[in-house]
Amino acid sequence: MKILLPLDGSVYSKKAINYLSHLEDIKKFTNTVFLVNVQKKIPSSIENKLKNGVVEELQNAESRAILKPAKKKLEEAGYKVKTKVCFGRATENIVKVSKEIKPDLIIMGSHGRTPVKGLLFGSKTSSVLASTKAPMLVLRKESQYAEDRMRVGICIDGSEYSNAAIKYAQQHMQLFGKDPIFYLINVITPHSGLIIPEVSAFGAPAMTKEEFEREQRIPFDEKVEPIYEELRNKDIEAKVVLLKGDPSEEIAKYAVENNLSLLILGTHRRGAFTSMMMGSTAMRIGSACHLPLLLVHHVTEEVEESKNKDDTSSER
């Protein structure tokens, strides 16, 4: 397993270092942790006024101050670590490094603002999320690693996005420590109470509240039962959770009230602007709670083929 960890010296990136250093079980499955620091380019008008080599010396010193203690801490925790310094725009360089090393996971620390106030995860984290197909573990300042058994929530709706999240979790169980508990979470639309029980607006018999909720549960049971059984066959404790209401609000509320350690969500891989806005359930859940979020992309064959064509064209 390869892990990419961009660092900028902020309290958020320090949180990511602390979190990773406490993930005991993942160490034996990790080949390398790649630490990347991106230094902004100094405007040429300013650089020309300075002595030759001064800017480079200052930037290298700043990078060492960020990377050296992080490398030491992770090596002491048992990881093999490599460092890299890039120059220019942070997002572009992080995405470029991600394409080069093809990590199994990107870990980034980020603020926990609301989508409108701060584009939720911050412009860098949101842009990287939108520009790479690698799964991303997003940590906020308030995120805490689990001291004992991890209580892991997986959001399931039967879509290709949640299926990708489930598949990734099953392939990377080492991320969740010893004896994790998985909560398989789905949210259904509650009965509005506006339908007259005896007759619908079209003259046909309307569903009762019980019938309405039973119909909604059928596809959930069909999707979750195989996952539940597979986890149980591997002696992994799992619980089925069915909530009612707005998905983002109910999932965030349940996660906090039940002291979950981590939430796993499948998400689209659309443009940066779309990913930052409030249309995504994953984004809204992130704004409503400060738990670590493991975001797993589902990349369709059509999108991947288009991306490969674009990459090939840009190289010409």
Structural features, described:
By secondary structure, this protein is of the alpha/beta class. The chain has one domain: Rossmann fold, CATH 3.40.50.12370. The protein is built from twelve helices and ten strands. It has helices at residues 11-21, 44-47, 54-76, 90-101, 115-118, 123-131, 160-171, 209-233, 247-257, 272-276, 281-288, 301-315, and strands at 2-6, 32-39, 81-87, 105-109, 136-139, 151-155, 181-188, 237-244, 262-267, 293-297. It has a ten-stranded mixed beta sheet, sandwiched between helices. Helix 8 links the parallel strand 7 and strand 8 (237-244). Helix 4 runs parallel beside helix 6. The chain is elongated and about 80 Å long. It starts with a strand and ends with a helix. Residues 112-121, 194-200, 270-279 and 300-316 have low confidence and may be disordered.
Features:
12 helices; single chain; 10 strands; ten-stranded mixed β-sheet; Rossmann fold; alpha/beta; disordered C terminus; 316 residues
Secondary structure layout:
Layout: E1 2-6, H1 11-21, E2 32-39, H2 44-47, H3 54-76, E3 81-87, H4 90-101, E4 105-109, H5 115-118, H6 123-131, E5 136-139, E6 151-155, H7 160-171, E7 181-188, H8 209-233, E8 237-244, H9 247-257, E9 262-267, H10 272-276, H11 281-288, E10 293-297, H12 301-315
Parallel strand pairs: 1-2, 1-4, 2-3, 4-5, 6-7, 6-9, 7-8, 9-10
Antiparallel strand pairs: 5-10
Organism: Turicimonas muris
Protein name: Universal stress protein
Domain UspA: 2-140, 151-297
